[in-house]
Protein backbone atom coordinates (compact mmCIF):
# COMPACT_ATOMS: atom_id res chain seq x y z
CA UNK A 1 0.00 0.00 0.00
CA UNK A 2 1.36 3.42 -0.97
CA UNK A 3 2.51 5.83 1.71
CA UNK A 4 0.42 8.88 2.53
CA UNK A 5 2.43 11.88 3.70
CA UNK A 6 0.63 14.66 5.54
CA UNK A 7 2.41 18.00 5.93
CA UNK A 8 1.63 21.30 7.62
CA UNK A 9 3.21 24.58 6.62
CA UNK A 10 2.41 24.43 2.90
CA UNK A 11 2.92 26.44 0.71
CA UNK A 12 5.85 27.66 2.82
CA UNK A 13 9.32 27.44 1.30
CA UNK A 14 10.77 24.55 3.32
CA UNK A 15 7.55 22.51 3.16
CA UNK A 16 7.33 23.02 -0.60
CA UNK A 17 10.94 21.95 -1.08
CA UNK A 18 10.49 18.98 1.27
CA UNK A 19 7.49 17.83 -0.76
CA UNK A 20 9.56 17.69 -3.94
CA UNK A 21 12.35 15.80 -2.18
CA UNK A 22 9.92 13.24 -0.71
CA UNK A 23 8.16 12.77 -4.03
CA UNK A 24 11.45 12.15 -5.83
CA UNK A 25 12.29 9.43 -3.33
CA UNK A 26 8.81 7.85 -3.17
CA UNK A 27 7.14 8.32 -6.55
CA UNK A 28 4.10 6.17 -5.68
CA UNK A 29 3.24 8.17 -2.57
CA UNK A 30 0.26 10.45 -2.04
CA UNK A 31 0.37 13.78 -0.21
CA UNK A 32 -2.09 15.72 1.92
CA UNK A 33 -1.31 19.34 2.76
CA UNK A 34 -3.07 21.07 5.63
CA UNK A 35 -3.36 24.62 4.30
CA UNK A 36 -4.50 27.68 6.20
CA UNK A 37 -7.44 29.23 4.29
CA UNK A 38 -5.46 32.44 3.80
CA UNK A 39 -2.86 30.48 1.81
CA UNK A 40 -5.21 28.32 -0.25
CA UNK A 41 -4.99 30.28 -3.52
CA UNK A 42 -1.20 30.19 -3.44
CA UNK A 43 -1.26 26.48 -2.59
CA UNK A 44 -3.66 25.74 -5.45
CA UNK A 45 -1.42 27.59 -7.89
CA UNK A 46 1.66 25.63 -6.77
CA UNK A 47 -0.06 22.25 -7.07
CA UNK A 48 -2.18 22.84 -10.18
CA UNK A 49 -0.33 20.14 -12.14
CA UNK A 50 0.06 17.67 -9.27
CA UNK A 51 -2.10 14.53 -9.41
CA UNK A 52 -1.11 12.88 -6.14
CA UNK A 53 -1.82 15.85 -3.87
CA UNK A 54 -4.86 16.90 -1.84
CA UNK A 55 -5.21 20.29 -0.25
CA UNK A 56 -7.22 20.45 2.96
CA UNK A 57 -8.22 23.81 4.41
CA UNK A 58 -7.44 23.74 8.11
CA UNK A 59 -5.97 25.54 11.09
CA UNK A 60 -3.57 24.00 13.60
CA UNK A 61 -4.78 26.37 16.32
CA UNK A 62 -8.12 24.53 16.31
CA UNK A 63 -9.03 21.10 17.66
CA UNK A 64 -8.58 18.33 15.07
CA UNK A 65 -6.73 20.95 13.01
CA UNK A 66 -10.04 22.50 11.97
CA UNK A 67 -10.97 19.42 9.92
CA UNK A 68 -14.49 17.91 9.73
CA UNK A 69 -15.00 14.61 11.61
CA UNK A 70 -15.39 12.62 8.38
CA UNK A 71 -11.99 13.84 7.16
CA UNK A 72 -10.36 13.06 10.51
CA UNK A 73 -11.70 9.50 10.36
CA UNK A 74 -10.38 9.05 6.82
CA UNK A 75 -6.92 10.33 7.72
CA UNK A 76 -6.73 8.22 10.89
CA UNK A 77 -6.67 5.09 8.75
CA UNK A 78 -4.39 6.30 5.97
CA UNK A 79 -1.59 8.70 7.05
CA UNK A 80 1.80 6.97 7.34
CA UNK A 81 4.16 9.97 7.74
CA UNK A 82 3.28 13.29 9.34
CA UNK A 83 5.57 16.33 9.00
CA UNK A 84 4.75 19.33 11.16
CA UNK A 85 6.44 22.50 9.87
CA UNK A 86 3.74 25.15 10.35
CA UNK A 87 4.95 27.85 12.74
CA UNK A 88 5.52 31.57 13.07
CA UNK A 89 9.23 32.11 12.46
CA UNK A 90 9.36 35.92 12.70
CA UNK A 91 11.94 36.97 15.31
CA UNK A 92 9.83 40.02 16.16
CA UNK A 93 6.56 38.10 16.60
CA UNK A 94 4.35 39.19 19.54
CA UNK A 95 4.04 36.64 22.35
CA UNK A 96 0.31 35.92 21.93
CA UNK A 97 0.58 35.15 18.21
CA UNK A 98 3.68 32.99 18.70
CA UNK A 99 2.08 31.04 21.56
CA UNK A 100 -1.15 30.43 19.65
CA UNK A 101 0.54 28.95 16.57
CA UNK A 102 3.78 27.48 17.89
CA UNK A 103 2.59 26.05 21.20
CA UNK A 104 -1.18 25.55 21.01
CA UNK A 105 -0.87 24.57 17.35
CA UNK A 106 1.73 21.91 18.14
CA UNK A 107 -0.36 20.57 21.03
CA UNK A 108 -3.26 20.12 18.58
CA UNK A 109 -1.01 18.40 16.03
CA UNK A 110 0.34 16.11 18.76
CA UNK A 111 -3.17 15.02 19.72
CA UNK A 112 -4.00 14.49 16.07
CA UNK A 113 -0.99 12.25 15.33
CA UNK A 114 -1.79 10.12 18.38
CA UNK A 115 -4.95 9.06 16.53
CA UNK A 116 -3.14 7.86 13.39
CA UNK A 117 -3.27 4.07 13.38
CA UNK A 118 -0.86 3.58 10.42
CA UNK A 119 1.69 6.19 11.47
CA UNK A 120 5.29 5.18 10.80
CA UNK A 121 6.91 8.48 11.82
CA UNK A 122 6.01 11.91 13.19
CA UNK A 123 8.62 14.45 12.12
CA UNK A 124 8.53 17.72 14.04
CA UNK A 125 10.45 20.80 12.91
CA UNK A 126 11.88 22.55 15.94
CA UNK A 127 14.91 24.85 15.73
CA UNK A 128 18.47 24.84 17.01
CA UNK A 129 17.55 28.07 18.79
CA UNK A 130 15.54 26.34 21.49
CA UNK A 131 18.97 26.71 23.15
CA UNK A 132 18.05 30.37 23.75
CA UNK A 133 20.86 32.33 25.35
CA UNK A 134 22.94 29.32 26.27
CA UNK A 135 26.64 29.63 25.57
CA UNK A 136 29.15 26.93 24.73
CA UNK A 137 28.47 23.48 23.31
CA UNK A 138 24.82 22.42 22.96
CA UNK A 139 24.13 18.71 22.43
CA UNK A 140 21.28 17.27 20.40
CA UNK A 141 19.68 15.36 23.26
CA UNK A 142 19.63 18.46 25.51
CA UNK A 143 16.63 20.75 25.79
CA UNK A 144 15.68 22.22 29.15
CA UNK A 145 18.81 23.60 30.79
CA UNK A 146 17.16 26.57 32.50
CA UNK A 147 18.03 28.87 29.61
CA UNK A 148 16.55 32.29 28.89
CA UNK A 149 15.44 33.30 25.40
CA UNK A 150 16.14 36.19 23.04
CA UNK A 151 12.58 36.41 21.69
CA UNK A 152 9.13 34.82 21.71
CA UNK A 153 9.95 32.70 18.68
CA UNK A 154 12.66 30.85 20.61
CA UNK A 155 10.65 30.44 23.81
CA UNK A 156 7.52 29.13 22.09
CA UNK A 157 9.45 26.68 19.93
CA UNK A 158 11.11 25.45 23.14
CA UNK A 159 7.70 24.85 24.75
CA UNK A 160 6.45 23.13 21.61
CA UNK A 161 9.43 20.76 21.44
CA UNK A 162 8.90 19.82 25.09
CA UNK A 163 5.36 18.74 24.26
CA UNK A 164 6.54 16.63 21.30
CA UNK A 165 9.20 14.93 23.43
CA UNK A 166 6.54 14.04 26.00
CA UNK A 167 4.50 12.01 23.51
CA UNK A 168 4.27 8.33 24.34
CA UNK A 169 3.81 5.50 21.82
CA UNK A 170 4.43 7.80 18.85
CA UNK A 171 7.56 7.14 16.72
CA UNK A 172 8.97 10.63 16.33
CA UNK A 173 11.99 12.48 15.01
CA UNK A 174 12.77 16.06 15.97
CA UNK A 175 14.56 18.26 13.47
CA UNK A 176 16.50 21.30 14.73
CA UNK A 177 17.71 23.39 11.78
CA UNK A 178 20.17 26.23 12.07
CA UNK A 179 19.53 29.44 10.12
CA UNK A 180 18.13 28.24 6.80
CA UNK A 181 19.14 30.01 3.59
CA UNK A 182 18.49 29.35 -0.09
CA UNK A 183 19.45 26.42 -2.28
CA UNK A 184 23.20 25.80 -2.34
CA UNK A 185 23.04 25.00 -6.07
CA UNK A 186 20.79 27.79 -7.37
CA UNK A 187 20.62 30.33 -4.53
CA UNK A 188 16.81 30.29 -4.69
CA UNK A 189 14.95 31.36 -1.56
CA UNK A 190 11.44 32.54 -0.74
CA UNK A 191 12.23 35.38 1.67
CA UNK A 192 15.11 37.73 2.28
CA UNK A 193 15.13 37.41 6.07
CA UNK A 194 17.55 35.77 8.53
CA UNK A 195 21.11 36.16 7.18
CA UNK A 196 19.70 38.09 4.23
CA UNK A 197 19.26 41.03 6.60
CA UNK A 198 23.03 41.33 6.37
CA UNK A 199 22.71 41.70 2.61
CA UNK A 200 19.83 44.16 2.97
CA UNK A 201 21.78 46.23 5.49
CA UNK A 202 24.96 46.26 3.40
CA UNK A 203 22.94 47.11 0.31
CA UNK A 204 21.45 50.11 2.11
CA UNK A 205 24.88 51.51 3.06
CA UNK A 206 26.78 50.41 -0.05
CA UNK A 207 28.19 53.89 -0.71
CA UNK A 208 29.41 54.43 2.86
CA UNK A 209 32.43 52.98 4.69
CA UNK A 210 31.44 49.46 5.79
CA UNK A 211 31.57 48.62 9.52
CA UNK A 212 31.52 45.32 11.35
CA UNK A 213 28.59 45.00 13.79
CA UNK A 214 29.88 43.75 17.13
CA UNK A 215 32.84 41.47 17.71
CA UNK A 216 31.27 38.59 15.79
CA UNK A 217 33.59 36.01 17.34
CA UNK A 218 30.73 33.52 17.88
CA UNK A 219 29.86 30.74 15.39
CA UNK A 220 27.10 31.73 12.95
CA UNK A 221 25.30 28.57 11.92
CA UNK A 222 23.92 28.75 8.37
CA UNK A 223 22.58 25.79 6.38
CA UNK A 224 21.09 25.61 2.85
CA UNK A 225 17.52 24.46 2.30
CA UNK A 226 18.50 21.55 0.04
CA UNK A 227 20.59 20.06 2.86
CA UNK A 228 17.63 20.46 5.25
CA UNK A 229 15.17 18.68 2.96
CA UNK A 230 17.55 15.87 1.98
CA UNK A 231 18.50 15.25 5.60
CA UNK A 232 14.89 15.39 6.82
CA UNK A 233 13.60 12.94 4.21
CA UNK A 234 16.40 10.52 5.11
CA UNK A 235 15.94 10.81 8.89
CA UNK A 236 12.17 10.32 8.51
CA UNK A 237 12.78 6.72 7.48
CA UNK A 238 16.01 5.88 9.29
CA UNK A 239 15.46 3.45 12.16
CA UNK A 240 18.33 5.08 14.05
CA UNK A 241 16.40 8.37 14.04
CA UNK A 242 13.35 7.13 15.97
CA UNK A 243 12.68 9.13 19.14
CA UNK A 244 15.81 11.26 18.71
CA UNK A 245 16.59 14.92 18.05
CA UNK A 246 19.03 16.12 15.41
CA UNK A 247 20.83 19.40 14.87
CA UNK A 248 20.75 20.11 11.15
CA UNK A 249 23.51 22.65 11.56
CA UNK A 250 26.88 23.27 9.97
CA UNK A 251 29.41 20.98 11.72
CA UNK A 252 32.16 23.51 10.90
CA UNK A 253 30.47 26.92 11.07
CA UNK A 254 32.23 30.17 10.27
CA UNK A 255 32.37 32.92 12.86
CA UNK A 256 29.79 35.69 12.43
CA UNK A 257 32.52 38.21 11.61
CA UNK A 258 33.80 36.02 8.77
CA UNK A 259 30.31 35.45 7.37
CA UNK A 260 29.67 39.19 7.43
CA UNK A 261 33.00 39.92 5.73
CA UNK A 262 32.46 37.29 3.03
CA UNK A 263 29.01 38.69 2.25
CA UNK A 264 30.36 42.26 2.11
CA UNK A 265 33.17 41.28 -0.21
CA UNK A 266 30.87 39.25 -2.46
CA UNK A 267 28.04 41.80 -2.54
CA UNK A 268 29.93 45.10 -2.52
CA UNK A 269 33.53 44.24 -3.23
CA UNK A 270 34.39 45.92 0.10
CA UNK A 271 36.04 44.63 3.28
CA UNK A 272 34.70 46.13 6.54
CA UNK A 273 37.26 48.44 8.20
CA UNK A 274 35.94 49.35 11.66
CA UNK A 275 33.59 48.06 14.37
CA UNK A 276 30.29 49.36 15.71
CA UNK A 277 29.55 47.71 19.09
CA UNK A 278 26.61 45.33 18.92
CA UNK A 279 24.77 47.06 21.79
CA UNK A 280 25.10 50.41 20.03
CA UNK A 281 23.58 48.90 16.88
CA UNK A 282 20.74 47.30 18.85
CA UNK A 283 19.98 50.60 20.59
CA UNK A 284 19.98 52.52 17.30
CA UNK A 285 17.61 50.00 15.74
CA UNK A 286 15.01 50.68 18.41
CA UNK A 287 14.12 53.69 16.27
CA UNK A 288 11.78 52.65 13.48
CA UNK A 289 13.05 55.25 10.97
CA UNK A 290 16.57 53.83 11.35
CA UNK A 291 15.31 50.25 10.98
CA UNK A 292 13.42 51.24 7.85
CA UNK A 293 16.38 53.08 6.35
CA UNK A 294 18.81 50.24 7.09
CA UNK A 295 16.19 47.63 6.10
CA UNK A 296 16.88 45.35 9.07
CA UNK A 297 15.06 43.98 12.15
CA UNK A 298 16.58 44.84 15.52
CA UNK A 299 16.16 41.22 16.68
CA UNK A 300 18.45 40.02 13.89
CA UNK A 301 21.47 41.72 15.50
CA UNK A 302 21.45 39.26 18.40
CA UNK A 303 22.20 36.37 16.03
CA UNK A 304 25.34 38.11 14.85
CA UNK A 305 26.71 38.39 18.37
CA UNK A 306 25.18 35.54 20.40
CA UNK A 307 24.95 31.97 19.15
CA UNK A 308 25.67 28.66 20.77
CA UNK A 309 28.02 26.06 19.38
CA UNK A 310 25.77 23.26 18.14
CA UNK A 311 27.03 19.70 18.34
CA UNK A 312 25.70 17.76 15.34
CA UNK A 313 27.57 14.50 15.84
CA UNK A 314 24.39 12.36 15.99
CA UNK A 315 23.12 13.87 12.76
CA UNK A 316 26.52 13.42 11.09
CA UNK A 317 26.62 9.76 12.13
CA UNK A 318 23.16 8.83 10.85
CA UNK A 319 23.22 11.04 7.74
CA UNK A 320 26.72 9.86 6.88
CA UNK A 321 25.28 6.41 6.29
CA UNK A 322 23.16 7.96 3.55
CA UNK A 323 26.01 10.00 2.10
CA UNK A 324 24.40 13.30 3.17
CA UNK A 325 26.66 16.12 4.38
CA UNK A 326 26.24 19.84 4.92
CA UNK A 327 28.09 21.82 2.22
CA UNK A 328 30.65 24.48 3.08
CA UNK A 329 29.15 27.99 3.19
CA UNK A 330 32.08 29.57 1.34
CA UNK A 331 31.45 27.26 -1.64
CA UNK A 332 27.82 28.28 -2.18
CA UNK A 333 27.68 31.83 -0.76
CA UNK A 334 28.32 33.41 -4.19
CA UNK A 335 25.09 31.82 -5.46
CA UNK A 336 23.12 33.16 -2.50
CA UNK A 337 24.45 36.66 -3.07
CA UNK A 338 23.85 36.50 -6.81
CA UNK A 339 20.23 35.44 -6.24
CA UNK A 340 19.77 38.35 -3.83
CA UNK A 341 21.22 40.78 -6.36
CA UNK A 342 18.88 39.51 -9.07
CA UNK A 343 15.76 39.63 -6.86
CA UNK A 344 16.52 42.40 -4.34
CA UNK A 345 13.57 44.51 -5.57
CA UNK A 346 11.03 41.66 -5.48
CA UNK A 347 8.59 42.82 -2.82
CA UNK A 348 7.25 39.29 -2.24
CA UNK A 349 10.67 38.29 -0.94
CA UNK A 350 11.18 41.27 1.36
CA UNK A 351 9.72 40.80 4.82
CA UNK A 352 8.43 44.18 6.07
CA UNK A 353 10.36 45.98 8.81
CA UNK A 354 8.15 46.60 11.90
Could you explain how this protein is built, in words?
- The radius of gyration is 20 Å and the shape is globular.
- The chain has 13 helices and 13 strands.
- The mean pLDDT is 93.
- It has helices at 13-25, 40-46, 69-76, 95-113, 152-165, 196-204, 225-235, 256-268, 278-284, 288-294, 302-305, 313-320, 329-343, and strands at 4-8, 30-35, 53-57, 81-84, 121-125, 137-138, 172-177, 179-181, 211-213, 222-224, 244-248, 274-276, 309-310.
- The strands form four sheets. The chain has a seven-stranded parallel beta sheet, with helices on both faces. A two-stranded parallel ribbon has the order 6-13.
- It starts with a strand and ends in an 11-residue tail after the last helix.
- The longest helix is centred in the N-terminal third of the chain and has 19 residues, at 95-113.
- The chain is 38% helix and 15% strand.
- Strand 4 (81-84), helix 4 (95-113) and strand 5 form a beta-alpha-beta unit.
- The protein has two domains: 4-180 and 222-248, 3-Layer(aba) Sandwich (Rossmann fold); 186-220 and 253-310 and 329-349, no CATH class.
- It is α/β, with parallel strands linked by helices and 354 residues long.
Amino acid sequence: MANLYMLTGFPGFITSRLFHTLREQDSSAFFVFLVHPSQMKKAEKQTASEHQVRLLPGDITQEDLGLPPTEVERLKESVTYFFHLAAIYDLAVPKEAAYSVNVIGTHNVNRFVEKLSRLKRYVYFSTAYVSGEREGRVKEEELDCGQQFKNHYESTKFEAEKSVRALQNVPKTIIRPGVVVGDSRTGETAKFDGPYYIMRFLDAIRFAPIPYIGKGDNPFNIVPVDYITQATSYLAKAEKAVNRSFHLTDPSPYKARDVYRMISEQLLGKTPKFVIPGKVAEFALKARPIRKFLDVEREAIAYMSRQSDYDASQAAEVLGEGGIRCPDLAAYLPRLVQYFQEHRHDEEKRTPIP
